[in-house]
Amino acid sequence: MVIGSLQTNPDTSIGGIFPNPANITGENYVAINERINLMTGLVNSGIFAGAVVLGTVVFGMLTGYALAVLKWRGRGTVFALALLVQVVPFQLLMIPLYVMIARDYGLGDTHLGMILPYLINSTAVVIFRQYFLQIPKELFDAARIDGAGELRVLWQIAIPLVRPALVTVILLTFIGPWNEFLWPFLITKEASLQPLAVSLANYISTVAASTANPFGAMLAGAVVLAAPVVILFIFFQRFFISTDIGSGVKG
Which sequence ranges are marked TM in the entry (predicted)? Predict the structure, then answer.
């Protein structure tokens, strides 16, 4: 994909997977940026995905902690409902959500309208709950004896011990909204508010033929869209590795 985005003329042969200095150019990135403004799309994608990740982590931690550690009536029923939500495809909810958010709440053509349906993720709730269940209850009891409230127990005791769950939730949550194009496209038709995935979809369907090398420009946009996800994975990979190494050390 990277090599194809740098080719002056598309090379679909086997040799095209190797860079050819005589067929390399950066014009494909310039051509697609002139038509969809890559920086604006990246900023909108960052706002959308970043807000979703933040909401998912905060609400997922609070709910997962309540389901795993606190004792209250109906806890099992709430957890069963969280599991049930995961078997309902988001596509089935899209039309009623659109009516509620765009028409009833008047949040069409806003970032909040895009973010709201993704703000709470039942998968994150289940992941945090399962990790919190693995922490010895004696740690929580000792903190409470010392006078710590539940939020302090969560912040200082529980969260540092569930770093793998935190990393997993961030990665899984980020990839979804970052690549999402259908829901943002329904909420807004304003190019200045659309995430990069939506802008690329519009480019493919409408203005791809207006460039000298539509194939290369399309791949250039895909590279820009994929790069943040790859960078995020590389950054968090060391946390996975350190967790695996630490789990094999005694004492």
Answer: 47-70, 77-99, 111-132, 153-175, 215-236
3-state secondary structure of 140: helix
In DSSP notation, 25-67 reads -SHHHHHHHHHH-HHHHHHHHHHHHHHHHHHHHHHHHHHHHHH
Backbone φ and ψ of 106, nearest 5°: 65, 35
Residue type, 72: W
Domains recognised in the chain with CATH numbers = 2-240 (1.10.3720.10)
For residues 42-64, one letter each, b for 16 or more C-beta atoms within 10 angstroms of the residue's C-beta and e for the rest, the string is bebbeebbebbbebbbebbbebb
CA 103 distance to own-chain centroid = 26
Does this model's pTM top 0.90? My answer is: no
- The distance of Cα 64 from the centroid of its chain, to the nearest Å, equals 19
Report residue 181: phi and psi, to 5°. Answer: -130, -25
Q: Are 33 and 221 in contact (CB under 8 A)?
A: no
pLDDT tens digits, one per residue of 93-141 = 888 999 999 889 999 899 999 999 898 888 899 999 999 998 888 888 8
